[in-house]
Amino acid sequence: MELRHLRYFVAVADALSYRRAADELRVAQPALSKQIKNLEDEVGARLLDRNTTGVALTDAGALFLEEAREILRRAGEAVMLAREAEAGKRGRLVVGGLGAFSSGFLPTALAAFRREYPDVEVMVHEIGLPDQLKALASGQLQVAFTIMKEEEIPEELERASILEATVAILMSTEHRLANRQKVALADLADDPFFCIGETERHELHRQRIHQMFASRGLKHRPLRRVNSFESLVALVAGGHGVSMMLPMARSRNVDDVVYRRIKEHGPDLELELFAVWRKTAGKSLARNFVDTLREMQKGRGK
């Protein structure tokens, strides 16, 4: 049994005429009669009575008509849902969260995406920046973030630049240099520095800070690891040290810390954040979300 059999039957049942149904369906009347006969044979019951005045539904036909309409309705709905999913307008999307680092752009983008695509269920899965690409490859995420250079991003991934920012110094409002607008790295060489990365497997933040000093011929005190951004901010707010961060990172202790620009210049102080997604499964969902992210950032730049 095929959907066309059901469509043909419903057309005849509505018109109560093979001729009018054949005209509406644009098929030959003998072919239509044959399809209805095939349907009745498969069902094992007579569905229509043909007489001199037209066509009448049998008891079995009347009941079958209700079910046929429902099947056709559900089939049409399934087609619509599949097309919407293919276009990225419906489905489930899992985005990589970066905690405080994504708090400056992700909430606004999520709200805008919800307005544009209300039938997409979005989940945010917090994963450290070094592990986001791995989570994307394993299917845990559909949209991930990375600060790798564009040429280093694997070819099988689509990518889009969504954010450019300059690293700044995070310090307590009571720090001796907090009243300055810009701070030289040399003036911080003796300050305790915190980095995020509980284990040696997460070295990205530590390496970045070390390289910024080393490339300028400066030494710093041994970096102290903490396991979260909130822990780092709490220690900085309490005057236990300083750190380097992107200034869009937000914390509950925002009143106790300030960001200060770094006096030195150089490409190593500039960071570009890329959204990445796979070229295959769920690409329309991911692309629609990334387009929303980019639009949000364009609006901020105006």
Low-confidence stretches: none
- What is the count of structural domains? 3
Rg, Cα atoms, Å: 32 Å
User: Per CATH, what is the topology of the largest domain?
Assistant: D-Maltodextrin-Binding Protein, domain 2
Largest sheet: number of strands, sense, barrel closure: 4 strands, mixed
Which sequence of strands runs across the widest sheet? 8-12-7-11
3D shape:
rod-shaped
Number of strands: 13
Helix content, binned percent:
40-55%
Q: Strand-residue fraction?
A: 15-25%
Cα distance, first to last residue?
A: 59 Å
Number of helices: 9
Helix and strand succession?
Answer: HHHEEHEHEHEEEEEHEHEEEH
Structural class: alpha/beta
Mean pLDDT, to the nearest integer, reads 86
The CATH class of the largest domain, by name, is Alpha Beta
User: Which homologous superfamily in CATH is the superfamily of the largest domain?
Assistant: Periplasmic binding protein-like II
Instruction: Please give the CATH architecture of the largest domain.
Output: 3-Layer(aba) Sandwich
GO molecular function, one term: DNA-binding transcription factor activity
Domain HTH lysR-type: 1-58
Protein name: LysR family transcriptional regulator
Keywords: DNA-binding, Transcription, Transcription regulation
